[in-house]
Fold this protein.
Amino acid sequence: MQLIDKFNNKTELVGIFGHPLKHSFSPQIHNTSFEALGMNYIYLPFDIPASNLKSALKGAVALGIKGMNITLPHKEKIVEYLQDVSEEASVIGSVNTVVNENGVLHGYNTDVKGIIETLNDYKETIKETDVTIIGAGGAARSVVYSLIRHFKVNSINIINRTHQKAESLKEYFSTKMLFDNIKAYELVPPDLTDVFRNSKLIINTTSVGMYPEMDDAITSIEESFHKEQIVFDVIYNPLQTKLLKMAASKGAETISGLKMFVEQAAASFELWTNEKMPSDIIYSKLKEELINGKEGV
Ligand code: ATR
């Protein structure tokens, strides 16, 4: 069908607000889903500098935009411009999805849904165990929240290059969620061998898989992995990060970030449309594209 026939005065608009906008699979995920379900929607990227966020939100309401994904650098700042923020987004302090309900803007953090869907099969296995998280940024906050709220783990080790940030995260969640079994460590890999070895679940929330300087650090913890462990990397490109390859070589169960990525998108999709995203189709399609080295649009 020609584009000109496809969109009309009934077309609903959703999109992503960020700056600078990096390559992203989100437009493809949502537009493919709309097409598959025969829905009259379009998802577009909007490059919005920080100084324009407030006016862009007013514009979105004025134009009747149904909802948006929110990415860097707006995820924290946007909270003050929304009329309503969900419990998880408020505790995490970060919003990745907004729904415009007749001019009232509601904020959510669907990464939590992505994490829950990814780890649900292991719920009983990780309950009351010790878990290690690498990183203390935005992704780590969603992971810590999900582990405490939904997976009832025993303890959480937060390991970060900048020790102070790990400490701040520990303090924050101890106070906010009254969970005081968190320990903060600086990322000094050989010293942490026991911490890694004694963890049932290890989650990488940093972009380290993409940094060659981290290869040595990861290599130095190789001996910590074993077959009783689950290792989850939130990175989905590449599908098999260096960390996952190493963990798999020691017999650990490994999980790539692709399911989390697809499920957080599915949760946003459902919030905007009240329809289920065809996650299985999207998952297979993305997997194939990642294997073929595509980078999104
Ligand atoms: P996100 O929102 O994706 O989590 P972020 O908030 O910028 O991104 O956090 C990035 C995380 O990756 C941080 O924990 C960062 O460590 P610092 O707090 O020390 O900056 C971590 N990180 C990024 N590059 C890294 C590298 N080369 N080695 C180790 N950690 C790295």
Notes: The radius of gyration is 20 Å. The chain has 13 helices and twelve strands. Residues 135-140, 160-162, 165, 187, 205-208, 211, 213-214 surround 2'-monophosphoadenosine-5'-diphosphate (CB under 6 Å).
